[in-house]
Design brief:
With 85 residues, the protein is mainly beta. It contains one helix and seven strands, in the order E-E-H-E-E-E-E-E. It has a five-stranded mixed beta sheet with strand order 2-1-7-5-6, with no helix packed on it. The protein has a two-stranded antiparallel ribbon with strand order 3-4. Strand 5 and strand 6 form a beta hairpin. The longest helix is centred in the N-terminal third of the chain and has 7 residues.
Length: 85
């Protein structure tokens, strides 16, 4: 399934865990910390740490709690945004 992450197109398996699929595809930084701007990537892979926050189709979500769907438009989440439930 073709998805776009920060303008680059990735072919990810439909239904796969988004965080895991992006890591396998070579994405190493999902967001930046609000204090230092240091790059962050998935850590816990179970929704507890929020290091995998990304903006998906305009909504900030945890990549580790999201399944890949065709046509997703994904961006690094701005450091100060919080996820929507």
């Amino acid at each position: 399934m073709a998805v776009r992450f920060d303008g680059a197109v990735y072919d990810l398996p439909e239904g796969a865990n988004l965080a895991a699929a992006l890591l396998v595809a070579g994405v190493r930084a999902f967001r930046a910390t609000p204090i230092s701007g240091a790059p962050r990537a998935p850590f816990c892979m179970m929704g507890a740490c929020y290091d995998c926050l990304v903006r998906i189709d305009g909504v900030v979500r945890q990549a580790c709690m999201t399944r890949v769907q065709a046509g997703m438009e994904i961006e690094r989440a701005p450091a100060r945004e919080v996820p929507h439930g």
